[in-house]
Specification:
With 165 residues, the protein is mostly helical. The protein has helices spanning 13-22, 26-39, 46-53, 57-76, 90-101, 109-119, 126-136, 155-162. The chain is built from 8 helices and no strands. Helix 2 (26-39) packs across helix 4, helix 3 crosses helix 4 and helix 6 packs across helix 7 (126-136).
Length: 165
């Protein structure tokens, strides 16, 4: 009959349950879920498993094909992701975070940018420096602004107290 899965699942339902409980990765958990459903006959076809998971049927078929060829190890194997390497390696990021944690630190993102070019020989855009420093490393470079000598003592606190915000 067309659409009915012909696959022999070697693991028991208890083994599949323990694998699913231990699995933290969502995609790998879904793969194990499909095997569990097929083993317990909760689903009878690839299409019904695909509908329950919200995946395309060819995705489920690809998962089952990898299970047939290499077992559960092959099914759960995650290939390394390809892509462009980061412009700042982990050593540079570590050095930058140490510099940012120093009390004297940097007073502007331009200083950070120049430090990266001079000390680490990393040529990055100013925007990249700002994003790495502010959002990834959670560093704030704001320094207190000078206060006028003529300002009355307690004027700032008085203003904040009376401000309707």
């Amino acid at each position: 009959m067309s659409g009915v899965v012909r696959i022999e699942i070697r693991e028991t339902t208890e083994e599949l349950k323990t694998f699913m409980r231990k699995e933290k990765d969502v995609l790998r958990h879904e793969k194990l879920q499909v095997l569990y459903w097929l083993k317990t006959q909760t689903v009878d076809s690839v299409s019904s498993a695909a509908v329950r998971l919200g995946k395309h049927r060819t995705t489920i078929q690809r998962w089952l094909s990898s299970y047939r060829s290499g077992g559960i190890e092959e099914l759960l194997l995650q290939k390394p992701r390809s892509g462009r390497p980061r412009i700042m390696n982990s050593e540079t990021v570590e050095r930058l975070s140490k510099e940012l944690s120093q009390p004297e630190g940097f007073s502007s993102y331009k200083e950070v940018h120049e430090w990266l070019i001079n000390c680490c020989e990393v040529k990055v855009a100013y925007r990249t420096v700002h994003q790495w420093t502010r959002y990834r490393l959670k560093a704030k470079l704001k320094v207190p602004r000078p206060v006028s000598e003529k300002q009355k003592l307690g004027a700032v606190e008085e203003f904040k107290k009376n401000c309707p915000s």
